[in-house]
Design brief:
This protein has 9 helices and 10 strands. It is of the alpha+beta class.
Length: 411
């Protein structure tokens, strides 16, 4: 009877299986938003550089689950969403995604993607100002929940929104503690860096950079200097081009929003299912062996009563079948993990195919933006310098047209 009891217990354990705990509602952070207009003197412009993808050279997506198509798209998508989050707080001047640090601005936010799989995200963030002061390095992370991808959620909020709100709140808190004089100097330095880049002979000596890499102002140009007015005009054109590039980022951002959301949702589900498969496969195989062994050990000898014999025999047959099913099921579910990875890979390829190059019109000529945004902006800056050096004044009719996406594949 003891063996029969153990057999019944094993059957109950086999039927119980195992499950992975899953987060339903993700942790949230309230975004700090300005409730009154901020003085213009305290408004700094922010430039966000495309995030580093964090891909290893020997990355094998079949093993790591990190797909290059997805990660490279995220470098732009996540940076642009951070731009939207910061811009919506009312604490900043213009917030732009910038292709390079040479797009001189007051505050530069850079970073890298350490992890992003729809369930977990980890970002490394670095903040510096135009003078070269290193503000801080911080790591931001969160775990999404089932409701993070609900059709009823606020679509303006990203499933990773906690991370973006944390970054925005920290950046505001740091800046709010700075003295007004430093904020003013930061704005002057970013302007002088642009002037020196365009005309190093005239403005290269207005700033001095110490051994620590921090720039200090030696002197400011006269406000009535006509060259200053012209360079400020050039800078506005430069900002217009960066704004145009941001329209490209916006097209990309909104263009991939749905497939990227779907990929993250499925990727998260697959990650949870993958863990459940691995745990369940191991447990099922183990329980199957125990159940099968218990079944074979059940009392079936002739000394038992016929009723006991029939009971034991029925339990034995049931347990043998259950044990074999559990062993086979464990093996099959282990194989299912491979199909989850294959599903993610297929979605990744579909997602990457929707990122297309874009075209911009400059001075009536259509120019196709190819390669990296960095390369595109470098080409523009060379043109900008040529115009400044070749003419006594800056051309007033530089036309930066509305960006348009093409049907070509991703760059």
């Amino acid at each position: 009877m003891l063996r029969v009891g153990l057999l019944i217990t094993a059957l109950c354990l086999a039927g119980a299986g195992c499950a992975v705990n899953e987060v339903i509602v993700a942790e949230e952070t309230t975004l700090v938003v300005s409730d009154t207009p901020v003085e213009e003197s305290r408004l700094l412009d922010v430039g966000i550089i495309e995030f580093a993808p964090g891909l290893d050279e020997d990355n094998d997506p079949r093993k790591t689950g990190v797909w290059e198509e997805i990660r490279l798209a995220e470098t732009k998508y996540l940076a642009y969403h951070l731009k939207n989050t910061l811009q919506g707080t009312g604490h900043w001047g213009a917030v732009r995604v910038i292709p390079t640090r040479e797009a001189f601005t007051d505050v530069v936010v850079s970073g890298g993607i350490r992890q992003s799989d729809g369930e977990y995200v980890t970002l490394d963030i670095t903040v510096e100002d135009a003078a070269g002061r290193h503000w801080y390095d911080r790591v931001y992370k969160t775990q999404t929940g089932v409701t993070s991808f609900s059709d009823r959620r606020d679509r303006r909020l990203d499933p990773y929104q906690k991370v973006f709100n944390d970054i925005a709140n920290d950046l505001h808190a740091f800046t709010a503690a700075l003295p007004p004089k430093q904020l003013e100097q930061t704005r002057h330095v970013s302007e002088l860096r642009f002037f020196a880049d365009m005309s190093p002979l005239a403005y290269g000596q207005h700033l001095a950079t110490g051994d620590d890499g921090i720039a200090t102002i030696l002197r400011l140009p006269a406000e009535n200097d006509p060259t200053v007015a012209r360079l400020r005009q050039i800078r506005e054109r430069d900002r217009l081009v960066i704004d145009t590039l941001n329209e490209h980022y916006a097209n990309f951002y909104y263009g991939i929003a749905i497939p990227y959301r779907n990929w993250r949702k499925v990727s998260r589900q697959e990650a949870v299912a993958f863990r459940e498969v691995k745990r369940s496969a191991r447990l099922q195989t183990l329980v199957g062996v125990v159940v099968l062994a218990g079944a074979l050990a059940a009392e079936t000898d002739n000394t038992s009563s016929r009723r006991q014999y029939n009971t034991n025999r029925a339990l034995q047959n049931l347990a043998i079948n259950e044990g074999l099913n559990r062993i086979i099921g464990g093996i099959q579910r282990g194989n299912d993990a491979e199909s989850h990875v294959a599903a993610i890979a297929e979605l990744s390829e579909s997602f990457g195919a929707q990122a297309a190059p874009m075209v911009v019109s400059v001075e009536g000529q259509e120019r196709r933006l190819t390669g990296t945004a960095h390369a595109q902006y470098d080409s523009w800056r060379r043109l900008l310098r040529d115009i400044y050096q070749a003419e006594t004044g800056f051309t007033q009719n530089v036309d930066v047209g509305v960006p348009a996406r093409t049907n070509a594949g991703p760059q």
